[in-house]
Design brief:
The protein is an all-beta fold. Helix content is 3%, strand content 44%. The chain has one helix spanning 140-143; strands at 8-15, 21-33, 42-44, 53-54, 57-58, 65-72, 79-83, 101-105, 108-109, 114-117, 121-125, 130-135, 150-153.
Length: 154
């Protein structure tokens, strides 16, 4: 793995109370840090996709999310969390002011706490958009990730 960028992305779908949907992607970037006090940052990216409307009602606007996980030594541990629906200035929006619910991640229905195993760790997500991601300390790519190295979990 070293410094070669790889990506782990989790596609998710939100639905509003009218049943209209939109999709976006949560991208996890994994960095090696030499101290246990590594910082995690989270930014939101605005999507430019076209949303569908039904009967003149605009559909929700799901926006892509990014998060950074700092893997520390020893132990090769690291985690991050957030909310794909409500966090940040680019939070997902229902133009009608309704509640948005995560209904699907990577083709799996989300009706309660849902766990998806990625290439380098595990994503746990709930219908309200809250999520956590934990790297797999036994993954050979995590173990060989050099200082300053970067992985993007897809």
């Amino acid at each position: 793995a070293g410094g070669m960028p790889l990506e782990e992305m989790f596609d998710y779908t939100v639905r509003n109370v009218a049943g209209l949907e939109d999709s976006a992607t949560l991208t996890i970037t994994i960095l090696r840090r030499s101290t246990a006090t590594a910082t995690r940052t989270r930014t939101r990216m605005v999507s430019t996709r076209t949303r569908t409307a039904s009967g003149g009602v605009a559909g929700p606007d799901a926006r892509d999310d990014e998060s950074v996980v700092a893997v520390t030594t020893p132990g090769n541990t690291g985690s991050a969390g957030g909310n794909v629906v409500t966090t940040g200035p680019g939070a997902d929006v229902d133009p009608n002011g309704g509640v948005l619910t995560v209904v699907e991640v990577e083709g799996m229905s989300v009706s309660g706490t849902t766990t998806i195993t990625g290439m380098y760790g595990t994503l746990t997500i709930n219908p309200d958009g809250t999520w956590t991601y934990a790297v797999d300390p036994n993954n050979s790519n995590i173990q060989t990730l050099g200082a300053g190295g970067m992985l993007h979990d897809m």
